[in-house]
C-alpha cells in the first residue's frame, strides 16, 4: 500500500469519527433542552395545582376583591388548557404568554393579600405564601436552565463546522422562553380603599 | 459581567480535570500500597536468596500482590462508605420531613437549586452547631449529600442561604465533591494504617529486620550489604511519611475550586451579591466549629477551624491553605454583582 493511500484512509476515518461525534453532541444537547423544557412544565403544573387552594383560602376574607380573584382563576384555566396541548422546542411562545399572564394575575393577588393583615396572621396563608414563592422561584430557575441549555444548543447548531451536521441530525433552533408581556415586568397596583368594586 | 451562561465558566475542563485527578488519586493510592508490598518482597528475597536450597526462597512477589489486593479492597470500601463516614463524623442528622418553617425553607431552597443546576436533588443533612458552615459529600452528582449547620440556618436570610446552597451544588456539579470525598476517605485510611504500623515499629514488633541485618552475616555468604539497609530505611520512612504526603495532596488542590464554585453560584442564582453577603456573615462568626473537624474541613464553604494560613496569598498560601482568603472571594463576587448592576442600569453608589 502506498503512503498516499494510507494517508487517504486515515483522513477519511478521521472525518467519519468527527462526523459521528458532532452528530451525537447535537442529539445530546437536544435531549438536554427537551428535558429542561419538561422541568418547566412540571413546575408550572405545580403552580396550577396550588392556585385553587390559595383562592379558596383567601376567598372568605376578601369579598371586595372579586375581580382580582376572578382574574387569577381565569388565567389559571387558560394556562391549563394551553398546557394540555403539550410543548415543543420550536414553539414555547404560546405557553410562555399564558404563564406570563398567570404570573401577572397572581402577583396582583399576592400584593392585595398583603393589605389584609388578619389574613396573613392565620398560619395557612403564610405556608401557602412560602409554597407559592418557592414555586415561582422554581419556575424562574427552570426557565433559566432551559434558556441556558437552549442557547448552548442553538450556538452548537449554528457554529461551523457543526452546522454541516445539523441538517443531518434534524436540529432546529430552540425558541427561548422570553418574558413577552409587559404585565409581568410592571408592578401591580394595590387599591387599599376597601370600596366594593362593581 | 455575570458568567456567560452559554459558556459555563470552564465547567467542562474542570470536570475533566477532576475526573483525571480522581483516577490518578486512586491509581496512586493502590500503586503506593503495591510498591510498599514489593519493597517487602525485595527485602525478603535478599534475606532468603543466600540460604541453602532446601529452605524457603522468596521468589514470588507475594507481599506486592497482597498489598495490591488490599489497596483495591480499601478503595472499594472507601467508595462505598466514605460519604456516610464523613457525615457520621460531624454528627449530622438527615432532614427527611421538614416540620419547622425554617426546615421547609431549606428544603425548598435545595429543590430550587437542584433545578437551577440541572442536577437531581441531593439529600439534606443538618449539623447542630452554632458556627455557620456548609459542606457536601458524595460519590457522584446523582448521589450527593448537602449538610448545613443550624448556625447557618439561623444567621442567613433566604437569598443568602440560596447562594450558599448554590455554591455547594457547584461543587457537586464540577465533581469536586467526588474527588474530595474519596480523598477524605483515603487520608483517613492511610492515617489509621500508619498509626497502627508506627506502634508496631517503635515497640519492636519489626525488630527482626534490625537483628536480621547483623545476624544474617553469620549464615550465608556474607552480611546483606548496606544497600539493603538503605532500602529498608526508605521503606519504613515511607510508611511514616505516607499520611503527611496524602495530607499535602489533599490541601494543594482545593483553592481554585472555591473561586470556581463561587462563580457557579453566581451563575445559578444570577445574584453574586447574596453570596458575598453570606460569606461576610459566615466569616464574622467568631467561634471555630466544634462538630466539623479537620478531616472534613476541605469540603466546607469556609474553613471551620479559622486558620490564619488561609489569609496568605502566594506560593506558601497556595501550598498549605485549603481555602482562599475570604476578602478576595467577597471582592470578586462584589465586582461581578456591581458590573451586572451597571450593565442593567440599577447601580447605586453608596
Question: Could you describe the 3D structure shown?
Answer:
The complex is a heterodimer of chains A (198) and B (350). Chain A is mainly alpha-helical and 198 residues long. Chain A has a single domain, classed as LemA-like domain (de novo design (two linked rop proteins)), CATH 1.20.1440.20. Helices cover 75% and strands 0% of the residues of chain A. Chain A contains seven helices and no strands. Chain A has helices at residues 3-59, 66-84, 93-113, 117-121, 123-158, 162-168, 182-185. In chain A, α1 (3-59) crosses α6 (162-168). Chain A is rod-shaped, with a radius of gyration of 24 Å. Mean pLDDT of chain A is 81; it is low at 183-188. By secondary structure, chain B is mostly helical. Chain B has a domain at 88-179 and 254-344: Metalloproteases ("zincins"), catalytic domain (Zincin-like), CATH 3.30.2010.10. Chain B is 63% helix and 5% strand. Chain B contains twelve helices and four strands, in the order ααβαβββααααααααα. Chain B has a four-stranded mixed β-sheet, sandwiched between helices. In chain B, a hairpin with a 5-residue loop joins β3 (134-138) and β4 (144-149). In chain B, α1 (11-48) crosses α2 (62-90) and α10 runs antiparallel to α12 (326-344). The chains are: A mainly alpha (198), B mainly alpha (350). The interface between A and B is medium-sized, with 21 and 17 residues.
Helices and strands of chain A, in order, run as HHHHHHH
CATH topology of chain A: de novo design (two linked rop proteins)
- Greatest interface (CB-CB under 8 A), with counts per chain: A-B, 21 and 17 residues
Number of helices of chain B: 12
Report the portion of residues of chain B in β strands.
Answer: 5-15%
Our estimate of the beta-strand percent of chain A is under 5%
Main sheet specs of chain A = none
Sum this structure up briefly.
Chain A has 198 residues and is mainly α. Chain A has helices at 3-59, 66-84, 93-113, 117-121, 123-158, 162-168, 182-185.
Amino acid at each position: 500500500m502506498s503512503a498516499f493511500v494510507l494517508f487517504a484512509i486515515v483522513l477519511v476515518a478521521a472525518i467519519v469519527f468527527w462526523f459521528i461525534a458532532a452528530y451525537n453532541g447535537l442529539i445530546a444537547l437536544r435531549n438536554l433542552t427537551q428535558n429542561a423544557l419538561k422541568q418547566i412544565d412540571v413546575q408550572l403544573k405545580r403552580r396550577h395545582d396550588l392556585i385553587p387552594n390559595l383562592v379558596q383560602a383567601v376567598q372568605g376574607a376578601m369579598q371586595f376583591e372579586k375581580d382580582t380573584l376572578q382574574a387569577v382563576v381565569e388565567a389559571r384555566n387558560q394556562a391549563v388548557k394551553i398546557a394540555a396541548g403539550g410543548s415543543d422546542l420550536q414553539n414555547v411562545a404560546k405557553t410562555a404568554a399564558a404563564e406570563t399572564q398567570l404570573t401577572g394575575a397572581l402577583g396582583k393577588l399576592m400584593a392585595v393579600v398583603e393589605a389584609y393583615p388578619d389574613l396573613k396572621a392565620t398560619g395557612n396563608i403564610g405556608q401557602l405564601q412560602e409554597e407559592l414563592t418557592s414555586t415561582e422561584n422554581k419556575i424562574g430557575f427552570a426557565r433559566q436552565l432551559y434558556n441556558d441549555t437552549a442557547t448552548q444548543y442553538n450556538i452548537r447548531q449554528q457554529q461551523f463546522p457543526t452546522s454541516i451536521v445539523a441538517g443531518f441530525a434534524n436540529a432546529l433552533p430552540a425558541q427561548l422562553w422570553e418574558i413577552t408581556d409587559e404585565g409581568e415586568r410592571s408592578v401591580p397596583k394595590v387599591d387599599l380603599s376597601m370600596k366594593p368594586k362593581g | 459581567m455575570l458568567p456567560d451562561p452559554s459558556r459555563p465558566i470552564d465547567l467542562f475542563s474542570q470536570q475533566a480535570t477532576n475526573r483525571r485527578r480522581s483516577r490518578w488519586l486512586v491509581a496512586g493510592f493502590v500503586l503506593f500500597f503495591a510498591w510498599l508490598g514489593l519493597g517487602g518482597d525485595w527485602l525478603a528475597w535478599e534475606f532468603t536468596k543466600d540460604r541453602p536450597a532446601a529452605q524457603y526462597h522468596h521468589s514470588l512477589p507475594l507481599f506486592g500482590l497482597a498489598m495490591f489486593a488490599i489497596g483495591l479492597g480499601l478503595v472499594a470500601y472507601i467508595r462505598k462508605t466514605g460519604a456516610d463516614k464523613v457525615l457520621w463524623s460531624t454528627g449530622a442528622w438527615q432532614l427527611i420531613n421538614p416540620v419547622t418553617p425554617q426546615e421547609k425553607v431549606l428544603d425548598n431552597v435545595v429543590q430550587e437549586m437542584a433545578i437551577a443546576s440541572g442536577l437531581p436533588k441531593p439529600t439534606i443533612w443538618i449539623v447542630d452547631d452554632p458556627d455557620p458552615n456548609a459542606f457536601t459529600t458524595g460519590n457522584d452528582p446523582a448521589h450527593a449529600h448537602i449538610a448545613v449547620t443550624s448556625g447557618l440556618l439561623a444567621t442567613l436570610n433566604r437569598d443568602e442561604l440560596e447562594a450558599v446552597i448554590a455554591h455547594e451544588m457547584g461543587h457537586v456539579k464540577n465533581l469536586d465533591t467526588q474527588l474530595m470525598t474519596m480523598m477524605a476517605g483515603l487520608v483517613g485510611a492511610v492515617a489509621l494504617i500508619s498509626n497502627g504500623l508506627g506502634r508496631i515499629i517503635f515497640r519492636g514488633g519489626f525488630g527482626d529486620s534490625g537483628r536480621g541485618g547483623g545476624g544474617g552475616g553469620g549464615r550465608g555468604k556474607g552480611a546483606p550489604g548496606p544497600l539493603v539497609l538503605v532500602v529498608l530505611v526508605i521503606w519504613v520512612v515511607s510508611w511514616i511519611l505516607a499520611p503527611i504526603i496524602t495530607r499535602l495532596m489533599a490541601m494543594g488542590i482545593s483553592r481554585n475550586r472555591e473561586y470556581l464554585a463561587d462563580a457557579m453560584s453566581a451563575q445559578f442564582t444570577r445574584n453574586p451579591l447574596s453570596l458575598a453577603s453570606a460569606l461576610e456573615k459566615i466569616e464574622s462568626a467568631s467561634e471555630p466549629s466544634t462538630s466539623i473537624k479537620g478531616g472534613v474541613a476541605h469540603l466546607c464553604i469556609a474553613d471551620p477551624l479559622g486558620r490564619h494560613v488561609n489569609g496568605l496569598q502566594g506560593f506558601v498560601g497556595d501550598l498549605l491553605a485549603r481555602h482562599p482568603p475570604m476578602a478576595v472571594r467577597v471582592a470578586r463576587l462584589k465586582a461581578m454583582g456591581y458590573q451586572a448592576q451597571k450593565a442593567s442600569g440599577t447601580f447605586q453608589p453608596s
